[in-house]
Amino acid sequence: xxxxLEIKIAKQSVSKSPAPVETAHRIITLLPSATEIxxxxxxxxxxVGITHECNYPTSIxxxxxxxxxxxQKGLSSLExxxxxxxxxxxxxxxxxxxxALMAELEPTVIVTQALCDVCAVAESEVKAVIEKLNLKPxxxxxxxxxxxxxxxxxxxxxxxxxxxxxxxxxxEKGRQTIAAVQQRRSxxxxxxxxxxxxxxxxxxxxxxxxxxxxxxxxxxxxxxNKHQPSRTISYEEIQAASPDVMVVALCGFDEQRASMxxxxxxxxxxxxxxxxxxxxxxxxVDGNAYFSRSGPRLIDSLxxxxxxxxx
Length: 311
Fold this sequence. Notes:
Layout: E1 27-29, H1 32-40, E2 47-49, E3 67-69, H2 77-90, E4 95-97, H3 99-105, E5 109-113, H4 123-133, E6 138-142, H5 147-160, H6 164-185, E7 193-197, E8 199-200, E9 203-204, E10 207-208, H7 210-216, E11 220-221, E12 225-226, H8 235-241, E13 245-248, H9 255-259, H10 262-268, H11 275-278, E14 282-284, H12 297-309
Parallel strand pairs: 1-2, 1-5, 5-6, 7-11, 7-13, 10-12, 13-14
Antiparallel strand pairs: 3-4, 8-9
Helix pairs in contact: 5-6, 6-12
Protein backbone atom coordinates (compact mmCIF):
# COMPACT_ATOMS: atom_id res chain seq x y z
CA UNK A 1 0.00 0.00 0.00
CA UNK A 2 1.30 3.39 -0.90
CA UNK A 3 1.96 5.94 1.79
CA UNK A 4 -0.83 8.53 2.14
CA LEU A 5 -0.81 10.66 -0.97
CA GLU A 6 0.65 14.12 -0.56
CA ILE A 7 -0.52 16.56 -3.18
CA LYS A 8 0.03 20.27 -2.94
CA ILE A 9 -3.22 22.10 -3.61
CA ALA A 10 -3.33 25.86 -3.83
CA LYS A 11 -5.47 26.85 -0.87
CA GLN A 12 -7.86 29.75 -1.05
CA SER A 13 -7.14 32.48 1.45
CA VAL A 14 -9.92 32.76 3.97
CA SER A 15 -8.18 34.61 6.78
CA LYS A 16 -8.44 38.10 5.31
CA SER A 17 -11.17 40.39 6.49
CA PRO A 18 -14.05 40.35 4.02
CA ALA A 19 -14.95 43.39 1.99
CA PRO A 20 -17.80 45.40 3.50
CA VAL A 21 -21.30 44.21 2.63
CA GLU A 22 -24.53 46.09 2.89
CA THR A 23 -25.99 43.94 5.65
CA ALA A 24 -24.03 42.26 8.44
CA HIS A 25 -25.31 38.80 9.35
CA ARG A 26 -24.91 36.50 12.31
CA ILE A 27 -24.35 33.11 10.68
CA ILE A 28 -24.48 29.68 12.30
CA THR A 29 -23.40 26.69 10.22
CA LEU A 30 -24.56 23.22 11.14
CA LEU A 31 -22.26 21.18 8.92
CA PRO A 32 -18.55 21.52 8.08
CA SER A 33 -19.04 22.04 4.35
CA ALA A 34 -21.32 25.01 5.07
CA THR A 35 -18.60 26.52 7.25
CA GLU A 36 -16.13 26.15 4.39
CA ILE A 37 -18.56 27.78 1.96
CA UNK A 38 -19.20 30.72 4.30
CA UNK A 39 -15.49 31.33 4.79
CA UNK A 40 -14.66 30.94 1.09
CA UNK A 41 -17.20 33.69 0.44
CA UNK A 42 -15.36 36.06 2.78
CA UNK A 43 -18.00 35.90 5.51
CA UNK A 44 -15.79 34.51 8.26
CA UNK A 45 -16.21 37.59 10.44
CA UNK A 46 -19.98 37.05 10.39
CA UNK A 47 -19.73 33.41 11.47
CA VAL A 48 -20.88 33.22 15.10
CA GLY A 49 -21.43 29.47 15.62
CA ILE A 50 -20.19 26.17 14.19
CA THR A 51 -20.46 22.42 14.78
CA HIS A 52 -18.21 20.16 16.80
CA GLU A 53 -16.79 18.80 13.50
CA CYS A 54 -15.91 22.12 11.85
CA ASN A 55 -12.12 22.38 11.61
CA TYR A 56 -11.40 24.23 8.36
CA PRO A 57 -10.17 26.86 7.97
CA THR A 58 -8.30 26.56 11.25
CA SER A 59 -8.93 30.22 12.03
CA ILE A 60 -12.58 29.41 12.89
CA UNK A 61 -12.02 26.72 15.51
CA UNK A 62 -12.42 29.25 18.33
CA UNK A 63 -16.04 29.91 17.37
CA UNK A 64 -18.79 28.77 19.77
CA UNK A 65 -19.79 25.15 19.14
CA UNK A 66 -23.54 24.65 19.01
CA UNK A 67 -23.75 20.87 18.42
CA UNK A 68 -22.50 17.65 19.91
CA UNK A 69 -22.55 14.02 18.79
CA UNK A 70 -24.22 11.18 20.68
CA UNK A 71 -21.62 8.77 19.29
CA GLN A 72 -18.85 8.35 21.84
CA LYS A 73 -15.24 8.71 20.83
CA GLY A 74 -12.79 5.84 20.51
CA LEU A 75 -15.16 3.33 18.90
CA SER A 76 -14.05 0.99 16.13
CA SER A 77 -15.42 1.49 12.63
CA LEU A 78 -17.83 -1.42 13.06
CA GLU A 79 -19.01 -0.08 16.42
CA UNK A 80 -19.59 3.35 14.88
CA UNK A 81 -21.60 1.80 12.05
CA UNK A 82 -23.74 -0.29 14.42
CA UNK A 83 -24.30 2.69 16.69
CA UNK A 84 -25.41 4.85 13.77
CA UNK A 85 -27.75 2.13 12.46
CA UNK A 86 -29.32 1.74 15.90
CA UNK A 87 -30.04 5.47 16.09
CA UNK A 88 -31.53 5.52 12.61
CA UNK A 89 -33.66 2.42 13.29
CA UNK A 90 -34.95 3.95 16.54
CA UNK A 91 -35.44 7.34 14.89
CA UNK A 92 -33.32 8.96 17.58
CA UNK A 93 -31.00 11.89 16.97
CA UNK A 94 -27.31 11.39 16.28
CA UNK A 95 -26.60 15.03 17.10
CA UNK A 96 -28.01 17.55 19.50
CA UNK A 97 -28.12 21.35 19.47
CA UNK A 98 -27.17 23.54 22.41
CA UNK A 99 -30.43 25.47 22.51
CA ALA A 100 -29.32 27.94 25.17
CA LEU A 101 -26.22 28.85 23.18
CA MET A 102 -28.23 29.07 19.98
CA ALA A 103 -30.58 31.57 21.62
CA GLU A 104 -27.67 33.58 23.00
CA LEU A 105 -26.00 33.82 19.58
CA GLU A 106 -29.18 35.19 17.96
CA PRO A 107 -28.42 34.01 14.41
CA THR A 108 -29.93 35.79 11.43
CA VAL A 109 -28.87 32.99 9.04
CA ILE A 110 -28.61 29.27 9.80
CA VAL A 111 -27.12 26.91 7.21
CA THR A 112 -28.17 23.29 7.62
CA GLN A 113 -28.87 20.21 5.48
CA ALA A 114 -31.49 17.55 4.83
CA LEU A 115 -29.26 15.29 2.76
CA CYS A 116 -27.94 12.84 5.34
CA ASP A 117 -28.96 12.30 8.97
CA VAL A 118 -25.57 10.68 9.59
CA CYS A 119 -23.65 13.78 8.48
CA ALA A 120 -25.19 16.56 10.55
CA VAL A 121 -28.15 17.68 12.63
CA ALA A 122 -31.44 16.70 11.01
CA GLU A 123 -33.41 19.52 9.39
CA SER A 124 -36.50 18.67 11.46
CA GLU A 125 -34.56 19.13 14.70
CA VAL A 126 -33.21 22.48 13.55
CA LYS A 127 -36.71 23.71 12.73
CA ALA A 128 -37.99 22.49 16.11
CA VAL A 129 -35.25 24.40 17.95
CA ILE A 130 -35.90 27.58 15.96
CA GLU A 131 -39.61 27.40 16.72
CA LYS A 132 -39.05 26.69 20.41
CA LEU A 133 -36.62 29.60 20.81
CA ASN A 134 -38.81 31.95 18.82
CA LEU A 135 -35.88 32.82 16.56
CA LYS A 136 -36.49 34.29 13.12
CA PRO A 137 -33.35 33.44 11.13
CA UNK A 138 -33.26 32.65 7.44
CA UNK A 139 -32.85 28.87 7.20
CA UNK A 140 -30.78 27.63 4.27
CA UNK A 141 -31.12 23.92 3.57
CA UNK A 142 -28.28 22.42 1.50
CA UNK A 143 -28.77 18.99 -0.08
CA UNK A 144 -26.46 18.59 -3.09
CA UNK A 145 -26.11 15.32 -4.98
CA UNK A 146 -23.81 16.47 -7.79
CA UNK A 147 -21.07 19.01 -8.40
CA UNK A 148 -23.60 21.29 -10.09
CA UNK A 149 -25.76 21.01 -6.98
CA UNK A 150 -22.78 22.01 -4.84
CA UNK A 151 -22.25 25.08 -7.00
CA UNK A 152 -25.94 25.91 -6.55
CA UNK A 153 -25.55 25.77 -2.76
CA UNK A 154 -22.64 28.22 -2.95
CA UNK A 155 -24.79 30.58 -4.98
CA UNK A 156 -27.65 30.13 -2.50
CA UNK A 157 -25.47 31.09 0.47
CA UNK A 158 -24.00 34.00 -1.47
CA UNK A 159 -27.45 35.33 -2.36
CA UNK A 160 -28.76 34.98 1.19
CA UNK A 161 -25.76 36.80 2.65
CA UNK A 162 -25.51 39.56 0.08
CA UNK A 163 -22.34 38.45 -1.65
CA UNK A 164 -23.75 37.21 -4.94
CA UNK A 165 -20.77 38.37 -6.99
CA UNK A 166 -18.25 36.57 -4.78
CA UNK A 167 -20.31 33.39 -5.01
CA UNK A 168 -20.50 33.64 -8.79
CA UNK A 169 -16.74 34.17 -9.00
CA UNK A 170 -16.04 31.18 -6.74
CA UNK A 171 -18.33 28.96 -8.81
CA GLU A 172 -16.82 30.16 -12.08
CA LYS A 173 -13.33 29.38 -10.78
CA GLY A 174 -14.47 25.87 -9.90
CA ARG A 175 -16.08 25.35 -13.30
CA GLN A 176 -12.90 26.50 -15.04
CA THR A 177 -10.87 23.91 -13.11
CA ILE A 178 -13.36 21.19 -14.04
CA ALA A 179 -13.21 22.23 -17.70
CA ALA A 180 -9.40 22.10 -17.66
CA VAL A 181 -9.41 18.59 -16.16
CA GLN A 182 -12.01 17.46 -18.71
CA GLN A 183 -9.89 18.80 -21.54
CA ARG A 184 -6.86 16.90 -20.28
CA ARG A 185 -8.66 13.59 -19.65
CA SER A 186 -11.74 13.31 -21.85
CA UNK A 187 -10.05 11.55 -24.80
CA UNK A 188 -8.16 8.96 -22.79
CA UNK A 189 -8.42 5.30 -23.66
CA UNK A 190 -7.89 2.34 -21.33
CA UNK A 191 -9.24 4.28 -18.38
CA UNK A 192 -8.54 2.55 -15.03
CA UNK A 193 -11.33 0.96 -13.01
CA UNK A 194 -11.52 2.69 -9.64
CA UNK A 195 -12.84 1.26 -6.39
CA UNK A 196 -13.58 4.15 -4.04
CA UNK A 197 -14.37 3.23 -0.43
CA UNK A 198 -16.06 5.63 2.00
CA UNK A 199 -15.99 3.05 4.81
CA UNK A 200 -14.34 -0.32 5.39
CA UNK A 201 -16.13 -2.10 8.22
CA UNK A 202 -18.62 -2.69 6.69
CA UNK A 203 -17.54 -1.44 3.27
CA UNK A 204 -19.42 1.45 1.66
CA UNK A 205 -19.03 2.53 -1.94
CA UNK A 206 -18.96 6.14 -3.12
CA UNK A 207 -22.13 8.09 -3.84
CA UNK A 208 -23.29 11.60 -4.59
CA UNK A 209 -20.60 13.56 -6.46
CA UNK A 210 -17.63 11.20 -6.02
CA UNK A 211 -18.36 8.92 -9.03
CA UNK A 212 -18.67 12.11 -11.08
CA UNK A 213 -15.26 13.24 -9.83
CA UNK A 214 -13.76 9.88 -10.81
CA UNK A 215 -15.22 10.17 -14.31
CA UNK A 216 -14.00 13.73 -14.77
CA UNK A 217 -10.52 12.71 -13.65
CA UNK A 218 -10.35 9.99 -16.28
CA UNK A 219 -11.39 6.87 -14.40
CA UNK A 220 -14.27 4.40 -14.35
CA UNK A 221 -16.05 4.00 -11.03
CA UNK A 222 -16.63 0.26 -10.72
CA UNK A 223 -18.56 0.39 -7.43
CA UNK A 224 -20.27 3.73 -6.94
CA ASN A 225 -23.75 5.24 -7.05
CA LYS A 226 -23.50 8.38 -9.14
CA HIS A 227 -25.72 11.16 -7.77
CA GLN A 228 -27.26 8.73 -5.28
CA PRO A 229 -26.42 8.04 -1.62
CA SER A 230 -23.56 5.67 -0.95
CA ARG A 231 -24.55 2.17 0.16
CA THR A 232 -23.21 -0.80 2.02
CA ILE A 233 -21.51 -3.27 -0.31
CA SER A 234 -19.94 -6.68 0.21
CA TYR A 235 -16.29 -7.59 0.14
CA GLU A 236 -17.25 -10.00 -2.67
CA GLU A 237 -18.37 -7.01 -4.78
CA ILE A 238 -15.00 -5.36 -4.30
CA GLN A 239 -13.19 -8.56 -5.24
CA ALA A 240 -15.36 -9.13 -8.31
CA ALA A 241 -14.84 -5.55 -9.51
CA SER A 242 -11.11 -6.27 -9.84
CA PRO A 243 -10.16 -2.58 -9.58
CA ASP A 244 -7.04 -1.17 -11.20
CA VAL A 245 -6.94 1.59 -8.58
CA MET A 246 -8.32 1.67 -5.06
CA VAL A 247 -8.92 4.91 -3.18
CA VAL A 248 -9.70 4.71 0.52
CA ALA A 249 -11.13 8.01 1.79
CA LEU A 250 -13.15 7.18 4.87
CA CYS A 251 -15.83 9.68 5.81
CA GLY A 252 -14.69 11.68 8.83
CA PHE A 253 -11.26 9.97 9.04
CA ASP A 254 -7.87 11.38 8.09
CA GLU A 255 -5.16 9.23 6.47
CA GLN A 256 -3.71 8.01 9.75
CA ARG A 257 -7.06 6.84 11.14
CA ALA A 258 -8.10 5.29 7.81
CA SER A 259 -4.82 3.38 7.59
CA MET A 260 -5.68 1.66 10.87
CA UNK A 261 -8.58 -0.11 9.12
CA UNK A 262 -6.63 -1.39 6.15
CA UNK A 263 -5.94 -4.69 7.90
CA UNK A 264 -9.71 -5.32 8.02
CA UNK A 265 -9.91 -4.84 4.27
CA UNK A 266 -6.94 -7.09 3.58
CA UNK A 267 -8.25 -9.89 5.77
CA UNK A 268 -11.62 -9.95 4.01
CA UNK A 269 -10.29 -9.94 0.44
CA UNK A 270 -7.93 -12.04 -1.62
CA UNK A 271 -5.75 -9.00 -1.33
CA UNK A 272 -2.69 -10.05 -3.31
CA UNK A 273 -4.77 -11.01 -6.35
CA UNK A 274 -6.27 -7.54 -6.89
CA UNK A 275 -4.77 -5.60 -9.83
CA UNK A 276 -4.54 -2.45 -7.70
CA UNK A 277 -2.42 -4.31 -5.16
CA UNK A 278 -0.23 -6.00 -7.77
CA UNK A 279 0.51 -2.61 -9.33
CA UNK A 280 0.90 -0.74 -6.03
CA UNK A 281 -2.06 1.52 -6.74
CA UNK A 282 -3.87 1.55 -3.40
CA UNK A 283 -4.11 5.08 -2.01
CA UNK A 284 -5.26 6.32 1.38
CA VAL A 285 -6.58 9.89 1.31
CA ASP A 286 -7.83 12.26 3.99
CA GLY A 287 -11.57 11.63 3.70
CA ASN A 288 -12.35 14.16 6.40
CA ALA A 289 -10.91 17.03 4.36
CA TYR A 290 -11.63 15.83 0.82
CA PHE A 291 -14.40 14.05 -1.10
CA SER A 292 -16.93 13.85 1.74
CA ARG A 293 -17.48 17.58 2.31
CA SER A 294 -19.75 19.20 -0.26
CA GLY A 295 -17.95 22.52 -0.43
CA PRO A 296 -15.19 24.34 -2.33
CA ARG A 297 -12.59 21.66 -1.58
CA LEU A 298 -14.37 19.20 -3.86
CA ILE A 299 -12.45 20.95 -6.63
CA ASP A 300 -9.24 20.08 -4.77
CA SER A 301 -10.59 16.54 -4.50
CA LEU A 302 -10.90 16.41 -8.29
CA UNK A 303 -7.26 17.44 -8.68
CA UNK A 304 -6.22 14.83 -6.12
CA UNK A 305 -8.13 12.14 -8.01
CA UNK A 306 -6.56 13.19 -11.28
CA UNK A 307 -3.08 12.96 -9.75
CA UNK A 308 -3.88 9.50 -8.35
CA UNK A 309 -5.11 8.16 -11.68
CA UNK A 310 -2.47 9.82 -13.88
CA UNK A 311 0.65 10.32 -11.76
